Task: structure prediction
Amino acid sequence: MSLTWPDQLEFELGELAPALADPVLNSMNFLNEIAGRYPGAISLAAGRPAEHTFDVGAIERHVQRFCRYLREERGWDEARVCRLLFQYGRTKGIITELIARNLELDEQLSVDHEAIVVTVGCQEAMYLVLRALRADPSDVLFTVAPTYVGLTGAARLAELPVWPVEGGADGIDLADLTSKLGQARSAGLRPRALYVMPDFANPSGLSMSLAHRRRLLEVAAGENLLLLEDNPYGLFPQELSDRQPTLKALDQRRQVVYLGSFAKSALPGARVGYLVADQVVRDRNGNAGLFADELAKVKSMLTVNTSPISQAVVAGKLLEHDGSLIPATAADRGVYRDNLRRVLAGLQRRFPDGAHGVRANAPAGGFFVVVTVPFPVDDALLERSAADYGVLWTPMHHFYDAGQAVNSLRLSCSVVTAEQIELGLDRLAALIHDRLEEAG
Amino acid sequence: MSLTWPDQLEFELGELAPALADPVLNSMNFLNEIAGRYPGAISLAAGRPAEHTFDVGAIERHVQRFCRYLREERGWDEARVCRLLFQYGRTKGIITELIARNLELDEQLSVDHEAIVVTVGCQEAMYLVLRALRADPSDVLFTVAPTYVGLTGAARLAELPVWPVEGGADGIDLADLTSKLGQARSAGLRPRALYVMPDFANPSGLSMSLAHRRRLLEVAAGENLLLLEDNPYGLFPQELSDRQPTLKALDQRRQVVYLGSFAKSALPGARVGYLVADQVVRDRNGNAGLFADELAKVKSMLTVNTSPISQAVVAGKLLEHDGSLIPATAADRGVYRDNLRRVLAGLQRRFPDGAHGVRANAPAGGFFVVVTVPFPVDDALLERSAADYGVLWTPMHHFYDAGQAVNSLRLSCSVVTAEQIELGLDRLAALIHDRLEEAG
Result:
């Protein structure tokens, strides 16, 4: 298709929202574009969930299971069932009660279902919260660096500046958090929230200990700081017995907005996530409502409501497993655990005890491993890796907001076979050795 | 649930995004809340589509039809089909080629499918465009007054001020448009776009003639003004032979972004809409891309991608009818036509030739009729109508942005039976007569 015509309306990119020219919004495009150009390369870059459970027939089975629940457990007639699935519906969603029950069972988290808003994936949940919190240009958001690109991108769209806080080995450096909050307030800025992923974070792979979660909640209480807890990987520890309570389950002060996803625990294609926002919001007359209701107002102007058909698919999967996704994800958990162990063992074998200055971290679960190397890892190196070595991974600088050089890369191990892992690590090791030799 | 606790984090509404306290975002809540409080009242307020075609079995049939298309017409294997429906996917959508074919068949509109972005309903399409166009505080949006509340609400969230343009009998008063554009520019503001619904507009019911569409395109060309054409009701004229070409079909200058919806033509529950944005965007180096690709970047940070399961349901319905929704909507069209005629005839019978100063307009299709009365129609009158007369309708002031008194109300005739229409009009007539008597 030709892209030049005489006398046509055109835009300059600079005339559009500044976020569109921002590196953060172009990061994902760049990484997808490289993956598209080298389809034969082994991908240790993609953070997608495993595909072994995918089955078209499950859509019908799940929808029917949900309809049976409506008819038999709720006593609905067929017209009402049809209307629920096909018509416009409740902005906060039609499966909030089932989600509340799932949180009770899988996270020992008791929440009123009225505090839940079902969203178009967790991404919409993030945007709703950031958009609602952004009241004026003095508002700022805090995140642990490195941070999930989707969060930073949503903050860009909401025009909410992001202040990074050191992650460190504990998942967040609380002294740095306190210091940065003080700096922001001294500069006349208003810290609105801190975004954290306490379990097997993307991209760092790190988790917070129970003691550190408690300390974080204490600091947040002292600072009256809202915490945004994102938990897409919580069901995927290496050992189920190692699971930690979420911040929201420990929260005594309604200090935490919980961001939930069914993309990894049920299926990505439904695009169903949710948020729990039980904070009280008072209007000028002192009338109290829930933060969830304010977020639903934002949603009504963004997407109106999440597809009830998609919600029915997720609800059917929940019902099929009596509301809990822990047994339902046993096979996935096995795949992720075996892959993670294979990647960690494979790195240890190829670079024993930090040989050549190459070290991996040791995530207790999740999809990601971070490898630190003794040279900056830039996009040119990724391009070379794809073209000359046939392996894809993600330069960690994409997860830092400052544009600085970063000496590390992220490996994903969620959608690869054992053979792909070994071959991918061989290729990565060859690249690293060649790069080290060139440096002399 | 109690809403007061000691030592809990709370917000003041005034600390959140100003849009949340805006009457526009609370309009829909208020109207839904009234409907919820008077479930026994006849609703001439709801703009939802008719429900006679709803059938849970259709979900499976449509999904299977789409899968068959992928296997048989595209030659895909089962793993690829499963991955498309279940995995994360293309931000611009997986059914853009089928939508392009539908536009060719039903609207004689030829567009490259790369210029299409599938969205979570038309609401997301609106927000994507407004968010991308809002670069700085000098940007303003023009709309025809009265305007769909969802558009005004999306503009509030995007912090894009809305300048109303007179509608008049032609659908838009072009002299007023030119004058307002001049005023805005003189004030140092930058008009970004004009939002219009040329076919059976919500809420006015009005349509633009072919000649007036051409004049609007000429004016827009002269002003280098982007037009946002929203077309949810285009398939529902009283007579198919009366259909007019869309602005986008007449557009020679890529002057029009087309906003499409399947909520009324296929089913609301899929939450699938789309936009066509074939404008060229040039970056600082002169590289050209499509506006659709910039809008997809915004979408990647809002909802990532529209549920492929929802897209499959819509695609299956399109494929079942060889790509055209004109025959597929014949029964709906009959319902809407009969209801519209019955409402118009019923009003004429009860208030012949403007008796008592009560007049209806004469829409050529769509879901809505506007009734003008000789007194201001406020929310208190609606409340009284619901409580004492048992009929719901929509005060037109909700569709004007200025908070002024408005002497008219909107009647919807899309989800009512003939009996409900007659009884609803009897009740409305009783309310009007009583109100007139009180005024003396």
Remarks:
- The CA atoms of residues 63 and 312 of chain B lie 5 Å apart.
